[in-house]
């Protein structure tokens, strides 16, 4: 469910006198509205050439905000430690949609035989099975057959017991990474708002960028989609 965030600018409520709201860029109004609405962790999806501009404008609007421009999964992970009254992660639409490499995430644990002792193969080596890295549940298919490493490689799966992803980004892969998917799978609920230009239009397009926007919107819960006009026409896009 996506709710649009709305905030009203009354006299004295914000640092912007009502007479100036008319001339403020969309970005200032969006950030101020998000802040006033109680959003504290915001994911900003911007056109590539506006990433730095948005950063400046976030800091102009909420001076002590923690702001990070993210290009990689490592950047995203580091953004968890941002502080300040509002934490804003800025990502270009191009970067959010890019594909990436991943590899299975599982731990090999010794297999116990029916007698409760370690199961061994003919050569006496202890047999192991792949288990969830989080809850240690053995990873099996629908017929309770243990999955091999190759099986885990073939498809991204989640633990049937605790829903932990049984895959992780492969750091030896290309620098370009799957930021939208990563937010969806590993940072769901972390952000409380997605802000972006024309997100509602992008989602409808079904392109890679549109799918990334849709994935992010779902993971963040609430979406503030900027359009040509905002705030009932009182603030216009520059
Ligand atoms: Zn698990």
Helices and strands in order:
Layout: H1 18-21, H2 26-36, E1 41-46, H3 51-61, E2 66-69, H4 73-79, E3 87-92, H5 93-97, E4 102-104, E5 107-110, E6 128-131, H6 149-154, E7 167-169, H7 179-186, E8 193-197, H8 199-205, H9 208-220, E9 223-226, E10 229-230, E11 235-236
Parallel strand pairs: 1-3, 1-8, 2-3, 8-9
Antiparallel strand pairs: 4-7, 5-6, 10-11
The chain binds zinc ion.
Spell out the key features of this protein:
single chain, 238 residues, alpha/beta, Rossmann fold, 5-stranded parallel beta sheet, 30% helix, disordered N terminus, binds zinc ion
Can you walk through the features of this model?
Mean pLDDT is 79; it is low at 1-22 and 229-238. With 238 residues, this protein is of the alpha/beta class. The protein has 2 domains: 2-99 and 176-227, 3-Layer(aba) Sandwich (Rossmann fold), CATH 3.40.50.300; 101-174, no CATH class. 33% of the residues are buried. Helix 2 (26-36) crosses helix 3, helix 7 (179-186) packs parallel to helix 9 and helix 8 (199-205) crosses helix 9 (208-220). It is 30% helix and 18% strand. The radius of gyration is 23 Å and the shape is elongated. It has helices at residues 18-21, 26-36, 51-61, 73-79, 93-97, 149-154, 179-186, 199-205, 208-220, and strands at 41-46, 66-69, 87-92, 102-104, 107-110, 128-131, 167-169, 193-197, 223-226, 229-230, 235-236. Residues 132, 134-135, 137, 159, 161-162, 164 line the site of zinc ion.
């Amino acid at each position: 469910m996506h709710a649009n965030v709305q905030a009203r600018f009354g006299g004295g409520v914000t640092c912007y006198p009502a007479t100036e709201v008319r001339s403020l860029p969309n970005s200032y109004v969006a950030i101020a509205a998000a802040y006033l609405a109680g959003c504290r962790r915001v994911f900003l999806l911007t056109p590539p050439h506006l990433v730095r501009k948005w950063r400046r404008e976030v800091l102009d609007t909420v001076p002590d905000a923690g702001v990070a421009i993210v290009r990689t999964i490592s950047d995203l992970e580091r953004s968890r430690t941002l502080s300040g009254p509002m934490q804003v992660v800025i990502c270009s639409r191009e970067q959010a949609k890019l594909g990436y490499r991943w590899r299975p995430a599982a731990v090999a644990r010794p297999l116990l035989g029916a007698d409760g002792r370690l199961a061994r193969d003919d050569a006496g080596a202890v047999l192991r099975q792949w288990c969830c890295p989080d809850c240690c549940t053995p990873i099996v298919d629908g017929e309770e057959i243990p999955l091999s490493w190759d099986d885990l490689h073939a498809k991204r799966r989640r633990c049937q017991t605790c829903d932990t992803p049984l895959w992780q980004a492969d750091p030896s892969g290309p620098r370009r990474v799957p930021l939208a998917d990563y937010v969806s799978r590993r940072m769901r609920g972390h952000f409380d708002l997605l802000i972006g230009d024309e997100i509602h239009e992008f989602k409808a397009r079904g392109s890679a960028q549109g799918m990334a926007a849709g994935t992010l919107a779902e993971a963040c819960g609430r979406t503030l989609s900027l359009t040509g006009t905002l705030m009932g026409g009182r603030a216009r896009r520059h």
